[in-house]
Specification:
Blueprint (H helix, E strand, L loop, with lengths): L7 E6 L11 H11 L4 E5 L1 H13 L10 E4 L2 E4 L1 H12 L7 H27 L3 H24 L13 H13 L10 H11 L2 H7 L5
Parallel strand pairs: 1-2
Antiparallel strand pairs: 1-3, 3-4
Helix pairs in contact: 1-3, 1-6, 1-8, 4-5, 4-6, 5-7
Pfam family, one: GST_C_3
GO molecular function: glutathione transferase activity
InterPro entries: Glutathione-S-Trfase_C-like, Glutathione-S-Trfase_C_sf, Glutathione_S-Trfase, Glutathione_S-Trfase_N, GST_C, GST_superfamily, Thioredoxin-like_sf
């Protein structure tokens, strides 16, 4: 399905800790890249974001803006998962084919976002010895165990089996941000198969081979 999105821009922070892919903007960028959507990526320093945030509120374009967000011909669309669902629905791609699977896909997205929050809490929001120890010693192992079980429930490499859906991009990048997926290949074969399937998607494979600036 071909959709003309017009002038589409993705807004997120400037590279975090020197990484051009760290954080939630990359979840959306991966979906855009896979779908072949042309877009501008606007990276903001902290001061620039505060000024833009105030302008969005003042101009009544958004009541409570956060990053990442996108604009389509100047219209604001916010929050990572709602953006990805909106674009997927417009494309007629990355969505479930029935209500039962749609509920399942949304629940997977919610589980992944919980993992993202725990990771961010340990390393960005509240970094201290206790939060890091809890994440690295308990929470990350539980996350990989959960997704090994989830990925094993369907025939195929993706969360919904043979059909890729929007939370697959979120999960793939969360595993990139976490950085320990390479150590799970032998103990988590379904996770390993999922990562390889994502890496071999033609548009993603080309993108992943770049410096991803």
């Amino acid at each position: 399905m071909t959709v003309d999105f017009g002038d589409i821009k993705l807004y997120y922070f400037s590279p975090i800790n020197g990484s051009p892919t760290c954080g939630r903007g990359e979840h959306i960028r991966l979906l855009f890249k896979d779908a072949g959507i042309n877009f501008d990526y606007v990276r903001l320093e902290g001061k620039e974001w505060l000024e833009l945030k105030q302008k969005l509120v003042t101009d009544k374009k958004a009541a409570s803006p956060t990053l990442p967000f996108i604009t389509i011909d100047g219209k604001y669309y916010g929050k990572t998962i709602p953006i990805m669902k909106y674009i997927s629905n417009k494309l007629g791609m990355y969505i479930a084919s029935n209500d039962e699977d749609a509920q399942l896909v949304d629940s997977y997205a919610d589980i992944i976002m919980g993992w993202i929050d725990r990771w961010a809490n340990a390393y960005f929001w509240n970094p201290n010895e206790e939060t890091v120890k809890k994440y690295e010693g308990e929470q990350v192992a539980q996350a990989y165990a959960d997704f090994e079980n989830i990925l094993a429930t369907h025939k195929g490499a993706y969360l919904l089996g043979e059909t890729i859906t929007y939370p697959d991009f979120v999960l793939f990048h969360m595993m990139e941000d976490d950085g320990s997926a390479a150590n799970k290949a032998l103990t988590h074969p379904h996770v390993d198969a999922f990562i390889k399937a994502m890496q071999e998607r033609p548009n993603l494979k080309s993108y992943l081979a770049t410096d991803r600036q």
